[in-house]
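can u do me a favor
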């Protein structure tokens, strides 16, 4: 049987026994060519893992609505209509979230939302760069870390629930390997916020599933971005089974898989991306 990959029926029809399966990754691009592309809300798209994720989804034909503290930088972020689709927000201040959610809804103009990626995160260090422990972390640091890393994902998901439901969309929370083990550089507030986000992913998967929304997490190990301490690569790469740190695009590809039709029966999972560091 020959298949016209741009045929509307093939791209969008329900699968039946005689159908040739269309690659789920190509499907997104085809949808965008037909004017019914998917839309993503991505926090922390200006740098690191978020930046690589924005690029990958954009290449796959998704429209990206970005959220971070800085104005949109068109020189660095090569996706279409980036400035129009950018919402400037300080995620450590929960009082700013309702305004940001309203701005996102305005950008969606009543349309569905296919994915929310809670990627923005902070990992504060002491002034001298050392690890902040359960004995040394100031209360303001605890509050800031939990607001950005845990509360913002909860509020964004709640605020965008109707739009996610309309698309049978999915949520990906970015946790960390440090949520399940003590780390030489990452601090206690960061580690506990990521453990809480991992637990939240399970809870949300349970609560959102009856509404057709999947909720998963990815737990990166050492990925080469600004968040790493300067010594991380030299000290940890030798003990990671793959003998290297990861790259942001290696993380972006797993996020893309979780948001794609290829992951349609996956919810409540947390995927480790760490070169075997946890084994
Ligand atoms: N890199 C790793 O090895 C690693 C390992 C495990 C988990 N992770 C997790 O992966 C995610 C991305 O990390 P990354 O390494 O890519 O970090 P990064 O390079 O430091 O980027 C962090 C992003 O979050 C945004 N952001 C930070 N604070 C914010 C705030 N208060 N309000 C709004 N946006 C804020 C930043 O944008 P602006 O500065 O423009 O606001 C930036 O785009 C984080 O959740 C991190 O915990 C990373």
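np, heres the sequence
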């Amino acid at each position: 049987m020959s298949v016209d990959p741009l045929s509307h029926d093939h791209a969008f029809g329900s699968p039946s026994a005689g159908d040739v399966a269309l690659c789920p990754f190509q499907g997104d691009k085809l949808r965008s060519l037909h004017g019914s592309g998917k839309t993503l809300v991505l926090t922390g798209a200006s740098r690191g893992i978020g930046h690589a994720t924005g690029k990958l989804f954009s290449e796959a034909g998704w429209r990206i609505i970005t959220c971070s503290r800085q104005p949109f930088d068109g020189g660095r972020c090569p996706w279409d209509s980036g400035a129009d689709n950018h919402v400037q927000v300080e995620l450590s201040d929960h009082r700013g979230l309702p305004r940001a959610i309203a701005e996102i809804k305005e950008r969606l103009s009543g349309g569905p939302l296919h994915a929310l990626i809670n990627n923005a995160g902070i990992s504060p260090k002491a002034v001298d760069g050392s690890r902040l422990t359960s004995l040394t972390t100031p209360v303001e640091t605890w509050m800031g870390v939990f607001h950005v890393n845990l509360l913002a994902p909860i509020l964004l998901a709640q605020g965008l629930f109707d739009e996610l439901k309309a698309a049978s969309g999915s949520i990906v929370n970015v946790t960390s390997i440090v949520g399940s083990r003590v780390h030489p550089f990452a601090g206690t507030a960061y580690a506990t916020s990521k453990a809480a986000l991992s637990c939240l992913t399970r809870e949300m998967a349970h609560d959102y599933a009856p509404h057709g929304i999947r909720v998963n997490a990815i737990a990166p190990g050492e990925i080469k971005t600004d968040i790493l301490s300067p010594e991380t690569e030299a000290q940890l790469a030798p003990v990671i089974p793959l003998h290297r740190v990861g790259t942001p695009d290696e993380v972006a590809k797993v996020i893309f898989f979780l948001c794609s039709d290829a992951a349609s029966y996956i919810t409540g999972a947390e995927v480790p991306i760490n070169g075997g560091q946890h084994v």
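The chain has a mean pLDDT of 90. hope that helps!!
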